[in-house]
Amino acid sequence: MRRGFLNSKAAKERLSSATAQQFEQIKVTSVDLPAVLEKPVVVPGSTFSPTDPPTHIWATLPQLYGEPSTECVLLRGSKEIILKTPGFPKRLPPANSPAAFRVAPSPGKGMGLFSTRPIKQGEIILWERPLLIAPRGVPTRFPPGSFSAAQMIQHHLDACEHFIAIAVNRMEENCRAAFMSLHNCHTHDGSGPLVGRFRTNGVALGGLDGVQHQTDKPYNAILEHVSRLNHSCSPNTQPFFDRATFAYKLYAVRDVPAGEELTYQYIDVLANKTARAESLKPYDVVCTCLACTENIAETDKRRSEIANIFPFVPTWLMNYQLPDDWLIKKCTALLELIDKEGLQHLEGYCMGTRAIMDSYICLGDSRNASKWAARVALRPWSECEAESYPVKELLDPGSPAYAQHPLWQMRMRMWM
Length: 416
Ligand SMILES: C[S@@+](CC[C@H](N)C(=O)[O-])C[C@H]1O[C@@H](n2cnc3c(N)ncnc32)[C@H](O)[C@@H]1O
Known about the structure:
Elements: H1 9-16, H2 20-26, E1 29-33, E2 56-61, E3 70-75, H3 78-83, E4 101-106, E5 110-115, E6 124-128, E7 132-135, H4 149-170, H5 173-180, H6 193-201, E8 203-205, E9 219-222, E10 230-231, E11 237-242, E12 247-252, E13 261-264, H7 273-280, H8 290-293, H9 296-307, H10 313-317, H11 326-341, H12 347-362, H13 366-377, H14 401-404, H15 410-414
Parallel strand pairs: 3-7, 10-13
Antiparallel strand pairs: 1-2, 2-3, 4-5, 5-13, 6-12, 7-9, 8-9, 11-12
Helix pairs in contact: 4-6, 9-11, 11-12, 12-13
S-adenosylmethionine binds next to strand 5, helix 6 and strand 10.
């Protein structure tokens, strides 16, 4: 597979000084291919035809400033969304020196990431461009006839291997080596060596198809370091994809002492222990974190309570029957439960903190609101937070930003 015109030496030199606008004109390196299955291994006679309209494109993004590049398998429309992202392609910020993490063996878990020094809640541990992003599934067609479920799954896995192979073949040598050095826990289920690594190490990625805050994110990203994070049901980090830099930022979601293993959640950690154990089976993980080994009944109860509290301001604001401090009390209880369970990475943690600040704003209490604004500022890893009203101006209780805030004294004004 040709890597495209942006990869010649002359083109790279030209691009190293290119601006975002020039990049926009050049567009990305892409090869449009129809979704042809060249070798439908198990099910013979695939009905894909070379005349079918292309469903995916393979692209290398971005190749500027001599920074690491990402191989992408993109669904139709995603490339346009990426190119329209304000600020794209933004330079990566300089890396922490010395690095706040290291890769090292984690007993019983293979390799893992560990902190090299104390890290504060809200600190960015690392920025990293993915080696690869690709959809979690690809279109697969079957010729007429009847096939067993096993044949259909195998056929789909073969199609996925084919799609990923195109991207991996386009990688720079060092990126391909980094990809191939990642762990593969799917060696006995029909996955090929590339799909096995893709399924083992994928970090779910949304927002490239125009839909925000999806629970079922359509892409997986594979990264040299973030993909080394092992699972915990009480994780201490949360990865956040920043489209402008096309990179993940890895946040510490609570204070982390030096030498502690860095972890993130692979599955829904609000489920009970039995359901979590079931969801972790495909990753070959038998979790030994505290939530899975100690005081399981209490832990399950607290997690179920957390799942049932929604820190939604209008529910309280528009209901005069509820006391003025109703939402503040609810959210305080929510934050306490989350702290107890070590689940600060959840959206509910950031949303609950902001809901308390918003409640004080609705009540016209800028002194307390500013205290909570300071906490909101320390919890920037939420996807919703990135789009919410900025808190910087609200840190000072005397700021004129309060009187201009859309929620200012709203609780009183609603009932005048
Ligand atoms: C994304 S990789 C994480 C990095 C991996 N440990 C390595 O050596 O590269 C996922 C694999 O790590 C291992 N793993 C992750 N979390 C684990 C845990 N809590 N307990 C045991 N093994 C774990 C499992 O083998 C899993 O398939």
